């Protein structure tokens, strides 16, 4: 009687492929940490004749974790080959061994031609590599840096003064391997906690009545953020009734945003907070930024003030630039004021701005700015520039304050 061999397809022997060996990696990064120092030598004629090998030294300065100093030898560093030259060196003035660095020594030409005398190791780094200083006191420079007779008749010497600029690039090498363990650190959420505290109403000890609307807050938070609130709530001339303070000349939505910033240190989403139908580029939010800037100046919130300036700068246009300029003048916003003057000074923009209601308000509220604007336009007229056609909103150099090519929107 025969036997039957049953073979299961799944039980066939298989040959397992060997797993590839684990691969690790590391990266070596070599870079230079750069720094510059300017050394002014006044009274060169008095320093001359101090003797061969004697120097005038700069104050020590730090670059790349090491201290450096510039040494100028008016009579040369050594007697054998430097009798007719001045010598110039950069020295390692702190402890260190085998410090690798690149150097550049420049004697400035003090005339309009600016034909500086430059000896640079940076330009030769691919050929010779960085220079190595073995120990404290090691130097790099030139015994025959400049022939003395030529120096004294050149534009490098002016009013008995020399100006030397030294550039140092300390070479650092850092090798990084794979990070076996890493713990992610969450971003700060302190602002969220403060906002929740404000929204909960817990611990509030002061309230503000603004345009018939009441806002509760915490004295200590307000005092920490604003010196004006600190004086109002805790100063020697504090309000008699600090439980409820009435705020004049401010609308409730503006004070609401002001409180949000005080607790959050950032501007809120205007559409969500105030129910606006458009974003910051809209006329509504531009108006809000104007009112908020005035409030920020009132309570000495400098960061909020700058944020409002930035928003207004982004949205400068024909129909709002005059009121924005008046606001900048009244609240000492010099950067915003410069942007507005620059925008209005373009002839095509100026013609259109003069026709706006905002310009009439500007002439009534800030007449001195009109004089300043006329002077600005007159100065521009003295120089040649090409302005774009109406509606292009080209600034004097064809760009906005950030250097971007722009077309301001007309509303």
Automatic annotation (TrEMBL):
Pfam families: BACK_BPM_SPOP (PF24570), BTB (PF00651), MATH_2 (PF22486). InterPro entries: BACK_BPM_SPOP, BPM1-6, BPM_C, BTB/POZ_dom, MATH/TRAF_dom, SKP1/BTB/POZ_sf, TRAF-like. Residues 204-263 form the BTB domain. SMART domains: BTB, MATH. GO terms for biological process: cellular response to salt stress; protein ubiquitination. Residues 34-168 form the MATH domain. Residues 1-20 are annotated as: Disordered. Pathway: Protein modification; protein ubiquitination. PANTHER family: BTB/POZ AND MATH DOMAIN-CONTAINING PROTEIN 1, BTB_POZ AND MATH DOMAIN-CONTAINING PROTEIN 2. Belongs to the Tdpoz family. May act as a substrate-specific adapter of an E3 ubiquitin-protein ligase complex (CUL3-RBX1-BTB) which mediates the ubiquitination and subsequent proteasomal degradation of target proteins. This is BTB/POZ and MATH domain-containing protein 2. It comes from Rubus argutus.
């Amino acid at each position: 009687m025969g036997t039957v061999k049953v073979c299961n397809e799944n039980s066939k022997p298989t040959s397992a492929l060997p797993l590839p060996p684990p691969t690790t990696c590391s990266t070596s990064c070599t870079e230079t940490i750069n720094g510059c120092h300017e050394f002014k030598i006044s009274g060169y004629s008095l320093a001359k004749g101090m003797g061969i090998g004697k120097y005038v030294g700069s104050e020590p300065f730090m670059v790349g974790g090491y201290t450096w100093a510039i040494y100028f030898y008016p009579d040369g560093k050594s007697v054998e080959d430097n009798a007719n030259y001045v010598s110039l060196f950069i020295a390692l003035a702190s402890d260190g061994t085998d410090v690798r660095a690149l150097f550049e020594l420049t004697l400035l030409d003090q005339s309009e031609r600016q034909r500086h005398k430059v000896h640079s190791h940076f330009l030769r780094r691919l050929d010779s590599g960085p220079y190595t200083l073995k120990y404290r006191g090691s130097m790099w420079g030139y015994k025959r840096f400049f022939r003395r007779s030529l120096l004294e008749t050149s534009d490098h010497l002016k009013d008995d003064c020399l100006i030397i600029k030294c550039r140092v690039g300390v070479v650092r090498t850092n090798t990084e391997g794979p990070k076996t363990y890493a713990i992610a650190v969450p971003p700060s959420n302190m602002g969220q906690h403060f906002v929740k505290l404000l929204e909960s109403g817990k611990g509030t000890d002061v309230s503000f009545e603004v345009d018939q609307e009441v806002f509760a807050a915490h004295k200590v938070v307000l005092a920490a953020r604003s010196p004006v609130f600190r004086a109002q709530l805790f100063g020697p001339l504090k309000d008699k009734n600090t439980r409820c303070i009435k705020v004049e000349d401010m609308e409730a939505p503006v004070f609401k945003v002001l409180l949000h910033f005080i607790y959050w240190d950032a501007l809120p989403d205007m559409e969500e907070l105030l129910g606006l139908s458009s974003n910051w580029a809209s006329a509504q939010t531009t108006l809000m930024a104007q009112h908020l800037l005035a409030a920020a100046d009132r309570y000495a919130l400098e960061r909020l003030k700058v944020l409002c300036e930035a928003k207004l700068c982004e949205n400068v246009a024909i129909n709002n630039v005059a009121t924005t300029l008046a606001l900048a003048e009244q609240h000492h916003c010099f950067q915003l004021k410069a942007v507005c003057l620059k925008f209005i000074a373009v002839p095509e923009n100026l013609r259109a701005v003069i026709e706006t209601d905002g310009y009439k308000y500007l002439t009534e509220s800030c007449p001195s700015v009109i004089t300043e604007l006329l002077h600005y336009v007159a100065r521009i007229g003295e120089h040649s520039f090409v302005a774009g056609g109406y509606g292009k909103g080209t600034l004097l150099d064809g760009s906005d304050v950030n250097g971007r090519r722009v077309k301001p929107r007309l509303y």
